[in-house]
């Protein structure tokens, strides 16, 4: 059963004054409530403009944008933005305010009482793995870049917004911290079931985080699909070049088993190999290789069977260019 749309673009365009080309051109796309959508594209593709059209930092030149069925143009901009969390690369914490004051900014504007704000601050600090007793009285200058970004995320969630907009929030952070923050964000999204729209130029980040990925180029959407389908069934040459510019095999580390399953076709028994739905397809592939291509059963986090992945399925998806790695010379894959 599909969730209701949280955000809908209906032939929405944006053209800035003094420019010849549209930054966003007649985009039509529907984003379901509770989904994690990543927006992928090179510099100048329109991905950040698309994001900023939702909270009306940029007003659409034409077309419509609907927020839970209401046109954003008809919603007072201040009230709209209170319903939307916004996280950017620069973080933007107020340097003269403590962590708890930064997080409590929007609740204070909404006239929450002090006890409610205090409880919310503690809950959010725990959620982003920053113990309140240690961090609530610190100032931004006393935090690492990763800690500041966690506080920025907590502040964006303070008033329990209906959707979260995130514009390359981890782009200026070192690789290890970035990976940890990605894992934290996935954990938080699954716990809270928030609608998140996350802009990135990093293919691996887009594949790791997104239930679905919007691929943009020159203001248009080239493909909107699951990471698995975008990698193995690109809509056109642009998408293909974008997502296969590096080793396709390495991309599998950022795809999950539950993104590649097909319905169960054979009787299940206790001797079958089983993996969790969050297991990377890279690990699934190597498991296939070292178990002579046996069918693998995929389970959810409650050990319920949700589908299967078989060797032929993966082998076909790799195609002729990957035969040497996956079939004719399996020893070449390093684990």
From TrEMBL:
It is an enzyme of class 7 (translocase). Residues 7-243 form the ABC transporter domain. GO terms for molecular function: ABC-type quaternary ammonium compound transporting activity; ATP binding; ATP hydrolysis activity. The keyword ATP-binding applies. Keywords: ATP-binding, Nucleotide-binding, Transport. The keyword Nucleotide-binding applies. Transmembrane segments: none annotated. Its EC number is 7.6.2.9. Belongs to the ABC transporter superfamily. PANTHER family: OSMOPROTECTANT IMPORT ATP-BINDING PROTEIN OSMV. This is ABC-type quaternary amine transporter. It comes from Clostridium acidisoli DSM 12555.
